[in-house]
Design a protein that fits this description.
The complex is a heterodimer of chains A (about 775) and B (about 160). Chain A is an alpha+beta fold and about 775 residues long. Chain A contains 18 helices and 33 strands. Helix content of chain A is about 25%, strand content about 25%. In chain A, helix 7 links the parallel strand 12 and strand 13. In chain A, helix 16 crosses helix 17. The chains are: A alpha+beta (about 775), B alpha+beta (about 160).
């Protein structure tokens, strides 16, 4: 029995091992299939979309007769054909605009033709008459009484019960936190810091643009091949928008060439389904051009944020007052929930007794915003963590010590009134500070350069429906290998590898015996809410472990019956069932399909083994609409920090990162190298948004929709060294203690860099991006450069 | 649109392809030959996902007309491995964890191969310079650069 107990207590292999990615070989040989790679033959039609050239305009007349007269043009679709409303939390959007358009790029007419060139030619022949209207390009103006109403019917839209739109305004949600007595706390503060920050829209920039092929059959069945992070959510949204039964929609989602949130939910997919329904029997393909990708899929919310925070004479944080004006663009999709998520995490990862937050989601005539890696947290922390830094320095305290003094600990009553679970933020701060040699000032590499270090902390919870669920199945094959069914997407993060590891560990077979069933296909894959919110390792991981344990239990019961033993005395080790009692052993492949014979072949026991498992958090509670207080706002928080060392060139304003360190509490790293790869990749994306990125909108028209004008980080922009530190304070309901880390690594990057620039120069650079000219002019303004 | 018959050697094998005058090499590979390993990320020569070797030189195949390649030799990602044996850079990018979503990977591998052919002993700066035209949104490039360094080391050992 000792052996058995030992085996049960041990973390089984390959949990915690950095095995090679299961998708690596096909991705280096060019054989991995992405959506655009699927061949449809000569029957394929090509869709193009006629889009609004105005940010806000009435549609007076649509005339597509000339386009339809062109040989090879198969159909034209307008809003009149599909007038229903859709939306994840707030149903504010039609597939094609009907009465008016609300952003430049909004779909007005869709066509299908026999070639892309022909479709493009036909678009030019479609005549649309508009009457331009006054537009909103700024969320603070959008809040004002003078602003034109973008959605006059806001009060009539269907909405989730935890989203609070204000009819007769441009406010699609207002989330409030009222904790303690903020107004009474200011007088007890030794120092108070107050700032405004503006974070521009950025774009996700997956290297693979959005691509969808849809085919509607005569029977009513609709099939989509889609670059999707959320095949099941797409099925749900499209079914509801078009009035089709869920069983009649099949979404097939091959490997995704980068998502970062923009391929979650539905953006352009319904357009293709609507067109396909007009040309039944033929597949229709829409491939967004890079230019379209920049402003017609999703972009990240813009933010105007006001922070006011203060601490007492000992440096203890006493109060925070925050106002967030989220620029959601023309439609909300995820933005209303992002407004909520930023509100319920608005204290940052700190223990603050008094917090008042008003987080507003505001319609503008900007591109539609969607979820992006970090879901509001990179934007919010950008300002918050610069204010924390300034507070520490004004108090003449070390920014690392100040953060350690105030950072959230297990047992704290956090901003929503929830009791914080155990977390390793203090350990993250200590380890990152040590790795960057905090407190040690190095000499710059040249006389015209200034050198400094900065740190920033973060926290983030999976922002999702409270009851977002996962499911999985595990099927044993004749040779005792495993086929694992999941509905979560491989978008580069390595989830298929991690799920293989979890299934192998939970069942007791070598990981080489596991294959993930793909592509993800809603007809055959088990349900998964969405591949978002860094939730798969935890949520889908639990479902996979449950499915593997279910299969394991079935196997053990069959063998126990045949051996006349107790299943409790049996174990599966390395593909064999063994008994700790009788010391018998039998390979799995003798059992898992054909069962086991009874004594003297007097009948059979068992049969093909299929394990099933699911997971859904059941404990998340609602929050009070007036105070944002409740027992448990979220499932958990992942915490961490980044520290950087920079050199600022005072002649050019260019900032170079010499070294970067990240430390995050992931609960348990199932595959440490994959975790570190997420930490590096997130830092790279954070660096890119810190130094380069921002949509340049002029009266709602995007001025930089290409890689020449919208620059993202390249090889030469990254530091030579990024050190990634894994901290493991286990998650009580995660598989072997694991929680997610995919998004978190880009959350503190902007403020860590800004704080390092301050340390080097004594100048606060504020709102990103920190382009050389911005940094240089800030140095001139501050008198650092004459 | 008039069409042309062109002869190209792709990954060592001769092909005759009939292409319209305005067809790019990228479209020829993906649409005419169903060789989909080479990716379309921008169709404007800016992202590097469609990088192939044209007579040994790395090019953005979206920026070259197929007719210009008449008589040329092409190498795509499908041509890197030989009889199931991966090329060194393919192995090291797996070992170093330089693959995430995999969409930029084919172009990265081709650019890296071109670098290692013309400069078997590249410095870190040489590597970063050689890959500056291959955009990757997932990895932060760190492990890609390490993979090229490791490939150079291994090739040196083998020589």
């Amino acid at each position: 029995m000792d052996k058995l107990q030992k085996s049960k207590d041990k973390i089984p292999a390959p949990v915690g091992e950095s095995i090679t990615r299961v998708d690596a070989r096909e991705k280096v040989t060019g054989s991995a299939i992405f959506t655009d790679d699927i061949q449809f033959g000569p029957g394929l039609l090509f869709a193009r979309i006629k889009r609004s050239p105005y940010p806000h305009a009435k549609i007076l007349k649509i005339d597509a007769s000339k386009a339809l007269a062109l040989p090879g043009v198969k159909c034209v679709v307008t809003g009149k054909d599909f007038p229903g409303y859709t939306g994840l939390y707030l149903q504010d959007r039609q597939i094609f605009a009907t009465e008016k358009t609300r952003f430049v790029g909004e779909p007005v007419v869709g066509i299908a033709a026999t070639s892309e060139e022909l479709a493009e030619k036909a678009l030019d022949l479609i005549e649309v008459e508009y009457e331009p209207m006054a537009a909103v390009h700024d969320p603070e103006y959008g809040m004002s009484k003078e602003a034109p109403l973008i959605h006059p019917d806001l009060g009539k839209y269907t909405v989730a019960n935890y989203i609070f739109p204000k009819a007769g305004t441009n406010i699609s949600n207002h989330f409030k936190i009222r904790k303690g007595d903020v107004d009474g706390a200011w007088k007890n503060c030794a120092v108070v810091v107050e700032h405004r920050y503006q974070i521009p829209h950025v774009q996700h920039v997956p290297i693979e643009t959005h691509i969808v092929i849809a085919r509607a059959e005569d029977t009513g069945k609709v099939t989509l091949w889609s670059t999707s992070q959320s095949p099941f959510a797409q099925r749900n949204l499209i079914a509801k928008a078009l009035g089709i039964s869920h069983k009649d929609i099949e979404v097939i989602a091959p490997y995704v060439g980068g998502g970062f949130g923009c391929k979650a939910g539905a953006s352009m997919e319904s357009l293709v389904v609507a067109i396909a329904m007009k040309v039944r029997g033929r597949p229709v393909k829409l491939r967004l051009t890079r230019e379209e990708e920049f402003y017609t899929a999703f972009v990240r919310q813009g933010l105007v944020a006001y922070f006011k925070m203060g601490c007492d004479k000992d440096g203890m944080l006493l109060a925070m007052e925050n106002k967030f004006y989220w620029d959601s663009g023309a439609y909300t999709e995820y933005a209303v929930n992002m407004t909520r998520a930023s509100g319920y995490s608005s204290s940052g990862p700190y223990d603050v007794p008094n917090v008042k937050t008003d987080s507003y989601c505001v319609y503008t005539n900007h591109p539609v915003t969607g979820p992006m890696r970090g879901f509001g947290m990179p934007e919010m922390h950008s300002g918050l963590e610069q204010c924390i830094d300034e507070l520490a320095i004004t108090m003449k305290m070390d920014p690392v010590e100040f953060r350690k003094l105030n950072c959230v600990q297990g047992g704290d009553i956090i901003v929503t009134g929830m009791v914080m679970h155990p977390t390793g933020l203090t350990e993250c701060i200590e380890k990152a500070a040590k790795a960057i040699d905090w407190g040690k000032k190095e000499k710059p590499s040249a006389p015209h350069k200034l050198r400094g270090k900065g740190i920033a902390c973060m926290w983030k919870a999976p922002a999702m429906s409270p009851n977002a669920g996962s499911s999985a199945w595990v099927e044993l094959n004749e040779d005792a290998t495993l086929t694992v069914g999941i509905g979560g997407q491989e978008i580069g993060q390595g989830t298929h590898t991690v799920m293989s590891q979890l299934a192998a560990a939970a069942l007791g077979v070598p990981v080489e015996h596991v294959r993930i069933a793909k592509p993800i296909d809603t007809d055959v894959s088990p349900y998964e809410w969405q591949t978002v919110a860094s939730r798969l390792t935890w949520s889908m991981g639990n479902a996979v472990v449950n499915a593997a344990r279910d299969a394991r239990q079935q196997i053990l019961e069959i063998v126990a019956k045949a051996w006349k033993e107790d299943p409790e005395d049996l174990d599966i080790v390395n593909g064999n069932v063994i008994s700790y009692k009788s010391e018998e052993s039998i390979p799995l492949h003798d059992i898992v399909i054909y069962g086991m014979p009874k004594e003297n072949y007097n009948g059979w026991i068992g049969g093909p083994i299929v394990g099933r498992g699911s997971f859904m958090p059941t404990y998340v509670t609602g929050l009070d609409a007036e105070t944002g207080q409740g027992e448990r706002a979220v499932v958990h928080y992942t915490t961490g920090c980044q520290a950087v060392e920079v050199e600022v060139d005072t002649l050019t304003g260019r900032v170079e990162i010499l070294k970067a360190v990240g430390a995050f509490d992931v609960g348990k790293a199932i595959n440490p190298e994959l975790v570190k790869a997420q930490m590096e990749g997130g830092f790279g994306m954070g660096l890119s948004t810190a130094f380069f990125e921002g949509l340049k909108l002029k009266d709602g028209v995007l001025q930089n929709p290409s890689f020449v004008d919208y620059r993202i980080a390249t090889t030469v922009d990254m530091p030579a060294k990024i050190e990634s530190i894994i901290v493991e304070v286990p998650q009580d309901d995660g598989p072997w203690g694991a929680r997610g880390v995919g998004e978190h690594s880009m959350v503190p990057t902007i403020p860590a860099i800004a704080n390092a620039i301050f340390d080097a120069t004594g100048v606060r650079v504020g709102s990103p991006p920190y382009l050389p000219e911005k940094v240089y002019l800030a140095l001139v303004d501050a008198g650092v450069v004459k | 649109m008039s069409t042309h018959k062109i002869n190209v050697k792709i990954n060592g094998g001769l092909e005759q392809v009939e292409v319209p005058s305005n067809m790019t090499l990228l479209s020829m590979l993906r649409e005419k030959l169903a060789m989909t390993g080479t990716k379309n990320g921008c169709a404007a020569g800016e992202c590097g996902a469609c990088t192939i070797l044209l007579n040994g030189e790395p090019v953005n195949s979206c920026m070259v007309l197929a007719v210009e390649a008449d008589g040329a030799e092409l190498v795509t990602v499908e041509g890197l491995a030989h009889e199931g044996e991966l090329e060194v850079i393919q192995k090291t990018i797996i070992d170093k964890g330089g693959v995430q979503c995999g969409f930029c990977t084919p172009g990265v591998l081709i650019s890296a191969k071109a670098l290692l052919t013309r400069n078997p002993n590249p410095s870190e700066a040489d590597i970063r310079e050689a890959l500056v035209g291959n955009l990757c949104r997932c990895t932060g490039y760190v492990r890609i650069v390490e993979a090229v360094q490791a490939a150079a080391e291994q090739q040196k050992g083998a020589a």
